[in-house]
């Protein structure tokens, strides 16, 4: 873990917004990520909240557009934002479509060739990156939360449901909540995991929550004017699964909001306070 490279660091709300890169063993290539260290990190370790971005995004998207640093500085939360996929892996077809390959890692561990050689974002997000952050930053490794948007909302739900002992808090903005039913999910799962749909269930939050509830309150915000709501997101499927599993869920339908960062930034404070309360408990 000594190969951490500092791309840039900037003072921000009396904390530090940094951008970094390193050689990842999980994806067998270079990965980039962002970390916001709140001012409280100057005096000791602080809770960590990881944000997973959506299709086509990078480690910069959340940092620039979400408006999260001001409140993170107030609440004493470290914000970690990884890139959304390996880049430059040299795999055939990785740059042909905006919704698959580069910028579209879907936060799973691919099992089908050639994607299994590099597209292991689940292992990167849940194991390698947290260890690196804990090693190189003043992070409380035992106080971690996770949230995300769209593809990243799917990733956050899956990562937390698979690791309820690792994450103390969970939320999402407009997640792909039942990817086995969604064209985005079918395309990604079919390529990354192969044609056996039974194998897909392990990466679908609506399937997972029935088997292993998170056990703590989950918050989801969904805009009613989201252009992807009907065909891709299926929050009602996840809501039904949570109800059947006894999982506490607050699903808020926000009138008139679409899928973008104007929506996300509007409700970011609610999500950060949700996580801060869970991480402090």
Protein described:
The protein has 281 residues and is of the alpha/beta class. The protein is 35% helix and 24% strand. The protein is built from ten helices and nine strands. A nine-stranded mixed β-sheet has the order 1-2-3-5-4-6-7-8-9, with helices on both faces. The mean pLDDT is 97.
Whole-Å distance between the termini? 31 Å
Please mark out the parts with pLDDT under 50 across 5 or more consecutive residues, or reply none: none
How would you describe the shape?
A: globular
Helix content: 25-40%
**Count of DSSP-assigned helices:** 10
The main pleated sheet reads as: 9 strands, mixed
Features:
9 strands; 9-stranded mixed beta sheet; globular; 281 residues
């Amino acid at each position: 873990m000594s190969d951490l490279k500092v791309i840039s660091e900037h003072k921000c709300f009396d904390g530090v917004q940094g951008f970094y890169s390193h050689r990842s063993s999980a994806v067998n290539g270079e990965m980039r990520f962002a970390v916001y260290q709140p001012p409280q990190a100057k005096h000791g370790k602080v809770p960590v909240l990881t944000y997973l971005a959506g299709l086509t995004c990078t480690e910069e998207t959340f940092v620039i557009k979400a408006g999260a640093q001001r409140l993170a500085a107030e609440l004493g939360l470290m914000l970690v934002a990884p890139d959304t996929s390996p880049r430059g892996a040299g795999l055939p077809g990785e740059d042909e479509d905006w919704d698959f390959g580069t910028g579209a890692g879907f936060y799973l561990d691919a099992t089908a060739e050639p994607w299994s050689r590099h597209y292991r974002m689940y292992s990167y997000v849940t194991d390698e990156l947290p260890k690196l952050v804990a090693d190189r930053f003043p992070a409380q490794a035992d106080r971690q939360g996770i949230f995300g948007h769209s593809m990243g909302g799917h990733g956050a739900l899956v990562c937390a449901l698979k690791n309820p002992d690792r994450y103390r808090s969970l939320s999402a903005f407009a997640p792909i909540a039942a990817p086995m039913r969604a064209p985005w999910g079918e395309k990604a799962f079919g390529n990354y995991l192969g044609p056996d749909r039974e194998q897909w269930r392990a990466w679908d939050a609506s399937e997972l929550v029935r088997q292993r509830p998170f056990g703590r309150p989950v918050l989801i915000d969904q805009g009613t004017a989201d252009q992807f709501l009907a065909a891709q997101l299926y929050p009602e499927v996840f809501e039904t699964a949570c109800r059947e599993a006894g999982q506490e869920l607050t699903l808020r339908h926000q009138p008139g909001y679409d899928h973008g960062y104007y929506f996300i930034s509007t409700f970011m404070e609610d999500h950060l306070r949700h996580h801060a309360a869970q991480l402090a408990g």
